[in-house]
Specification:
Layout lengths: L5 H17 L4 H34 L10
Helix pairs in contact: 1-2
């Protein structure tokens, strides 16, 4: 399975929220959509947290750091 980018996950999450907000889903569908949304939101949060940690390292570092090795 290919890992989606942050932007792709965010787009999927936005579409999912619109489906839920439409109110056109039965309860089972709504619960499945909600669960999928939680998974996507957690993945987006994880990616944002990693980006933040990288930025903090860059700001605190006085030398160049090769983050590709981490």
């Amino acid at each position: 399975m290919n890992k989606l980018t942050f932007e792709e996950n965010l787009e999927k999450l936005e579409k999912l929220v619109k489906k839920l907000e439409s109110g056109e889903n039965n309860l089972d569908e709504a619960v499945k959509l909600y669960h999928e949304g939680i998974v996507l939101a957690k993945e987006c949060h994880k990616e944002l947290k990693n980006a933040e940690e990288t930025i903090v390292k860059l700001m605190d570092s006085e030398e160049l750091v090769d983050f590709s090795k981490e």
